[in-house]
Amino acid sequence: MKPCWAKEKPPEIERRIKVNDGAYNAQFEYAQNIITTSKYNVFTFLPKNLFEQFQRIANAYFLGLLILQLMPVISSLTPLTTIIPLVAVLLVTAAKDAVDDIQRHRSDAQVNNRTSMVLRNGEIVEERWHKVSVGDIIRLKNNDFVAADLMVLSTSEPHSLCYIETAELDGETNLKVRQALEVTSDLSNDHAKMAAFDAEIISEPPNNRLSKFDGKMQLKEQTYSLDNEKILLRGCVLRNTEWCFGVVIFAGRDTKLMMNSGKTKFKRTSIDRFMNKLIIGIFMFLVTMCLICTVACGVWEAVTGHDFQVFLPWEYFIPEAKGSGSTTIALLVFLSYIIILNTVVPISLYVSVEIIRLAHSLWINWDMKMYYDKKDTPAKARTTTLNEELGQIEYIFSDKTGTLTQNIMSFNKCSINGKSYGDPVDREGNPQDVNENTPKVDFSGNPYAEKNFEFYDQELLNVVEQGEQQVHAFFRTLALCHTVMPEVHEDGTLEYQAQSPDEGALVSAARNFGFVFKSRTPSTITIEVNGATEVYDLLCILDFNNVRKRMSVIVKKDNKIKLYCKGADNIIFERLAPACADLKELTMHHLNDFAQSGLRTLCLATKDISEMEYAKWKIKHHAASTTIENRDDRLDEVYEEIETDLELVGASAIEDKLQDGVPETIANLALADIKIWVLTGDKQETAINIGFSCRLLTDEMEEPFIVDAESLEEVEQQLRTALTEVKEAKSGSKSDHVISNGATTYNGATASATVNTDAEMFGEFALVINGHSLAFALKPELEGLFLDLACLCKAVICCRVTPLQKALVVDLVKRHKQTITLAIGDGANDVSMIKMAHIGIGISGQEGLQAVLASDYSISQFRYLERLLLVHGRWSYLRMCKFLQYFFYKNFAFTLCHFWFAFFCGFSAQTLFDPYFISLYNVFYTSLPILVLGIFDQDVDDAHCVRYPKLYVPGIKDVLFNLRVFTWSVIEGLISSLILFFIPYGAFVYSVDSDGIDKADLQSFGTVVAATLVVAVNLRCALDMSYWTGFNHFVVWGSIIYYFCFQLAFYSEAIVYDYVGTSFEVFGNPATWFTMLLTCTILVVPMVVWRFYQTSVNPTLSDRVRLRQRMRKSKSRGRDLTVHRQSTFRRSQRSIRSGYAFAHQAGFGELITSGLNMKERAKEIVTTPVRLTKMLRQNANHVPKKSPTTEGLPVPGTSRSEPGSKQPSPRVSKNLEEPKKSQSTSSVDSVSRPEPSHRPEPSPLPQGKTIFVERL
Questions:
Q1: Strand order in the sheet with 795-799
Q2: 379 phi/psi in degrees, rounded to 5
Q3: How many CA atoms lie within 13 A of 108 on its CB side?
Q4: Residue 942 marked in a binding site
Q5: Dihedral of CA 337/339/340/346: which sign?
């Protein structure tokens, strides 16, 4: 929100910059390079925070009450009763907001105080990022973050090339290349030339297009075109480049990274929004009661009070006439009752809510089971206002790269000449599962072998050493057909710089099997085969693109020309020679096996080319490469001519590893009726395989609906066709559930009557939609159709999507479904989605901190999302709902006693209770038990929350606190107030002492009702507690004892007060204690009976699981009685093999053949070697050893997990839980289901015991 006095800046049409001319650039008031996500500063905190707080309806309401109480004419209560709690609320909320904003300031400072080397007065000086301005020249060194959007001027590499990693922008960890203009590359590393550089740059205004930049540079009356290949964006990291100079084009909030971050939205929970509506309704109820009292007061004053002024005289300003006087008094009484009855919504409610939310945030921060020790990263709640909404999530929108996967590739299997390699076998030749004890192939004889490379089939190395011709052709293809760049360190170690991790994994595999790619020039490729050097003349690179889905190289050795090709299986198969038909069938069989294991596959082929054929083709190629119009299309046509009649060599299979526990997490969240949508920038084939590997897609599902049309009409037709088929299938579908003994059973327990399963979940369908089709589907005319189809599907995958499209998909669901959404990602490309969702979660992974800084919660691994939602989210929602139900109950019971008393005091606004009791009721007498309930309570322990994900469903359905529940709380409070008032009234109205003196004075009667009220509501709170500790007993019974002690002390003669002696008189009367016992019995016993009846006759799933928890020592275990729906509809017949596993854009082919990136051709002085960055591949199949009885448990005595978390952990319980298999080697695209863990036979249950069934 801009200040009203701020000058409105006109929209920017174009940007004009003069390099090294700060005075010229300052006139345009371009944004400085400072990032501000905080809301306040020292001067604006108090006024701005107060303004925001009084925008809450409740705070404004209490401020109005305070103003009324300052008027003695209408107030019978001291203003302190409102001032103290109101100030406390404002201070607590302000302190919480200050803490949150301090954290934002620290995060901002962490980024803004990074240092860059900036050219100042001809010298390079160190400056903090926030002091960098548009037009400044910055010097970057290897592995530096780019401080702002820069235009490249010169670099240390030949022809001013540089390499960047854009993980924070698009989630891709493969390197991209940028190149400076030739005219600026001459500036080199000369500071004097840089200082004298005075070009003018004219560019487009700030925008969020990451892949496009339009501009021009004017220098010495010459104009040079600028495009995206000349730009380094903020958030990128300079890689494998010793130094680079650039001039700042966009800074701070104008950078493309920040323009893609979206606006920060003020997030409030659904309970908060519902509470605002309730407050309006409660206020109307309050006004209704006050109107009743007002009318009754007017009637009483007219009928009785006017003639009774000798005893109760009217105030001097009241008209003497009966009608006008009675009306005036009635109007004043209306305002008085507004003050007296305002406690139906006490201000302490908001203080308590803030305290409970803060405690819930601390439980998340302190949970050692969400602590990732490898990176020393705990889970962190970056906000304290959204915890209970974690227990109501229905839609999860997840990124893929770095969120679900590790983005680490490993070579696992291959098929060569019709034989499959990679499956480990024992001595008898039987296949084995890979585990810790599986022997690995020994590559120690290869000096270039990588220590972290793992392979388990010794036979492949044997045939390599035996010189098998086809096997050598396979690895020779991998060693030659690529665009990888080799780098040799000073210590002699060889590292590869790959355009994509897929390509790097294949070249590394060839290296480990003895086919080492050593070096390259624009015209040669050098490899070493088992110690012998082979040099090939590189004639041409036929580079990869998304249409070709393959790449080839044409090389020459010993006067023989040969083409090596690798690509997607369907693309290669179409270009094979007829003689390869039999081998094709065998290879296709192996490819299907690999795909079923979730591996990413591609085929390899070769072709011998004669000198004459190549000479003719080279002429066509030269003509196509030099044409101006449709150059790419012409080149593709020429490539097609030479890539025919190929000879199939084999196929490779690589694994993109999932993060540990991802499949189990997704499967468990799906059982909780949470719908998961994956929004990824990957290709369609890869996206589908990822879905299978993480169990988002399963074999039980129907064939996924593919929406990939290129026009609005075609997209609409595909969506309508799919929607029709789904509806037709669902109309004839049968229930998945087992009806056993009259009860509907799923996920190991009987369903609650209040939780119904949606019909939409009966059929398991999936939708896959491409980014270009999604652009049409999100248009207003199709968004409803798209959403209807997507919501009928169990899984949705959106592939090739932009950051903005991710946010639009989230917004679409938010606007139309009225459900709670969660977005999770780890890169800057996920920021807009994270900010758009109700809950944003950032994964503190390898893609920087942008997602974490924009998130509401941060975790280090996707698997922790399961515990965050099913445990912390569910507990927070449960506790908050219990707290609100009880709070409204106890305050209606308290406040309505005043209303009933009005009928006995002539509606004079006389209070029943002592004013100090009114002030302290919600602060001291009844606050601690409900706070303990709201902070510590749990119906079942954390292990069972994870084991029975259906326990999460009530939060999605919002059944624990809604209008029905609130209404019941009000009715219960109303009935309780009647009992609390009229039983003591009946007991004391005619009571006299032994001397015949009336004992029914106002002070005594009010003290009896107050004492009974305190005891009754604290006992009622005790009934709501599901989890008892010594602390619970202390606060419940301690609150009751504290009340009596305080009353005896406060009403004693030591303190001069109107109620002196009342407590000793009242509490010394046996009738008081009998009345209190009778009243509490009438209030509590019916509730105990009702709950016992409900638990016994109509138990909820929570009741049954809690019973099972109490029976955990029993050895009985349920059997899986779930019957899966047999599919009879559109069973998938497609291959799920990955189409092509390379980068999403063209490779380095053109750079290699042009020689621009070859240092051998650059005549430069040798400088300090560059410190190279390489993505180290983790151990592909290493499973860390864990104790089966201590896995995931905190160290005794040091645990900071939430008090009361039951041991053992979800994966450890000896009696109740089957151990979960380690999935550290799970791969992306794995569609096979893990074998169920061994489950002992259930011991017989005693007759009459409840039998539980559970899903294996």
A1: 380-381, 857-859, 839-843, 820-825, 393-398, 675-679, 795-799, 766-770, 705-707
A2: -70, 150
A3: 18
A4: no
A5: positive
401 is in an annotated binding site: yes
Residue 283 exposure: Cα atoms within 13 Å on the Cβ side: 13
Q: How far apart are CA 1134 and CA 704, in angstroms?
A: 10
Would you say how long the chain is, in residues?
Answer: 1256
The verdict on whether residue 681 carries a ligand-binding annotation is: yes
3-class state of residue 726 by DSSP: helix
* Residue 194 near residue 252, CB atoms below 8 Å: no
> Residue 14 burial by CB count (10 A; 0-12/13-18/19+): exposed, middle or buried?
exposed
Q: Is 569 labeled as ligand-binding? A: no
Alpha-helix runs per DSSP H in 1098-1212 = 1101-1110, 1149-1154
Q: Which residues contact 1023 (CB under 8 A, 6 or more apart)?
A: 1084, 1087, 1088, 1091
Asked if residues 652 and 771 have their Cβ atoms less than 8 Å apart, the reply is: no
Distance set, CA 736 to CA 114, 762, 792, 1013 (Å):
57, 7, 16, 50
pTM value is 0.71
Active-site entry in 97, 399, 941, 1103: 399
826 is in an annotated binding site: yes
User: What are the backbone dihedrals phi and psi of residue 744, each rounded to the nearest 5 degrees, phi first?
Assistant: -85, 125
pLDDT tens profile 699-749? 778 888 999 888 899 999 999 999 998 888 877 644 443 333 333 333 333
Is residue 800 annotated as involved in ligand binding? yes
20: number of CA atoms within 13 Å, CB side? 15
1158 to each of 29, 230, 504, 1151, 1161, how far by Cα in Å?
Answer: 42, 19, 19, 9, 6
Counting Cα atoms < 13 Å in the Cβ hemisphere of 396 gives 32
Secondary structure letter of residue 481 according to DSSP = S
Q: Is 863 a known ligand-binding residue?
A: no
Tokens of 1088: 């105990």
DSSP 995: T
Evaluate the omega torsion of the peptide bond into residue 1208 and state whether it is cis, within 30 degrees of 0: yes
How many Å separate Cα 812 from the centre of its chain? 17
pLDDT category at 1039 given cuts 50, 70, 90 is very high
**Is 376 assigned to a binding site?**
no
Q: Is the pLDDT at 859 greater than 80, yes or no?
A: yes
d(CA 174, CA 930): 54
Interacting residues of 1009 by C-beta distance below 8 A, sequence separation 6+: 897, 912, 913, 980, 981, 984
Cα distances from 582 to residues 418, 585, 680, in angstroms, run 9, 5, 37
Report how far residue 1064's alpha carbon sits from residue 1054's, in angstroms, rounded to the nearest whole number.
13
Q: What is the pLDDT of residue 628?
A: 65
Distance CA 707, CA 800 (A): 12
Residue in the block written with tokens 């053949």: 1153
Helices 1070-1097, 1002-1024: axis angle to 10 degrees equals 30
- Using CA atoms of 166, 170, 176, 177 in order, give the dihedral in degrees to the nearest 10: -80
Query: Cα separation of 43 and 20, whole Å?
Result: 35
Single out the residue of 472, 654, 477, 473 nearest to residue 565, CA to CA. Answer: 477
Whether 108 is catalytic: no
680 known member of a binding site: yes
Q: What is the pLDDT of residues 783-826, one digit of tens each?
A: 999 999 999 888 899 987 878 888 899 999 999 988 999 999 88
Per DSSP, the residues of 760-819 read GGTS--EEEEEHHHHHHHTSHHHHHHHHHHHHTSSEEEEES--HHHHHHHHHHHHHHH--
Distance CA 1200, CA 1194 (A): 8
User: In this structure, are residues 1209 and 1193 in contact, taking their beta carbons and an 8 Å threshold?
Assistant: yes
Band of the pLDDT at 395, cuts 50, 70, 90? very high
Contact at 8 Å (CB) between 79 and 70? yes
Contact 641, 614 (CB under 8 A): no
